[in-house]
Design brief:
about 260 residues; alpha/beta; Rossmann fold; about 45% helix; about 15% strand
């Protein structure tokens, strides 16, 4: 129970389809580690499903709907979380979206929306939560980035590469600016993870879902198999816990060695 007496607020705590997405697994993993969890998603039903799982396992959870592209929505959710649990200790940012295309194919609206969702979410949630962390003189931020922040992954998604690279540096900026106040900020950089999101946003790049899974598995040096949402969630729990008390400004790859590999995708 390494997170006993902590309150974790998880943005993007739902799943884009049946199964375990990164945010859903993270919210449940925080609860299993002892935290009370505020599960937030743009889809209220998705947040409620995650909160229901936590409660069914004996944990405490609050489900809320919020849009991370709207600061007023984020601020209202944070206020309700504090009103319910009296404090915040962990901010987890999981919201992200993939927009396919290079600069030629991608229209400007889609490009800006990709940045707004992937990077703007980090800005708005931090803006709303940091005052509470500063008052408490402690807090842990975990941002979910992507291996796409640091390398070409074989997919033509220019805006996503740029956005996730920005998430990495935004995490470093948070860590160094607020470290003197006892606030830590780290990021998890997943590689190829088998979640509902890839079937919704990636499978169209392949002939079939089975072809996608086989191709992605083949790129992973560790056992030739994609990771799961639990691999990402377990890393997040560690970074949010006191076991990582002297770790900040780190971008942790959770990628089965793919980031070290010279084998082209």
């Amino acid at each position: 129970m390494k997170l006993a007496d902590r309150v974790a607020i998880v943005f993007g705590a739902g799943s884009s389809g049946p199964g375990w997405g990164n945010g859903k697994a993270a919210a449940v993993a925080y609860a299993r580690a002892g935290a009370r969890v505020v599960a937030i998603d743009i889809a209220e039903a998705a947040a409620a499903e995650t909160a229901g799982i936590i409660r069914s396992e004996g944990g405490e959870a609050l489900a809320l709907a919020a849009d991370v592209t709207d600061f007023a929505s984020v601020e209202a959710a944070v206020a309700q979380a504090v009103a319910t649990f009296g404090r915040l200790d962990i901010l987890h940012n999981n919201v992200g979206v993939v927009m396919h295309g290079g600069p030629v194919e991608l229209d400007e609206g889609a490009f800006l929306r990709c940045l707004d969702i992937n990077v703007g979410s980090v800005y708005r949630t931090a803006k709303a939560v940091l005052p509470h962390f500063l008052a408490a003189k402690r807090g842990a931020i975990v941002n979910i980035s992507s291996l796409a922040a640091t390398r070409w992954t074989g997919y033509p998604y220019f805006a996503y590469y740029a956005a996730k690279a920005a998430v990495n540096q935004a995490t470093v900026a948070l860590a160094l600016q607020y470290g003197p106040q006892g606030i830590r900020a780290n990021a998890v950089m997943p590689g190829l993870i088998d979640t509902p999101l890839i079937y919704a946003q990636i499978s169209s790049q392949y002939g079939s879902a089975a072809e996608m899974v086989a191709a992605r598995n083949a790129q992973v040096p560790l056992l030739g198999k994609m990771g799961t949402a639990w691999d990402v969630a377990n890393a997040a729990v560690f970074l949010a816990s006191d076991e990582a008390a002297f770790i900040t400004g780190v971008v942790l790859p959770v990628d089965g060695g793919q980031g070290c590999s010279v084998v082209p995708p």
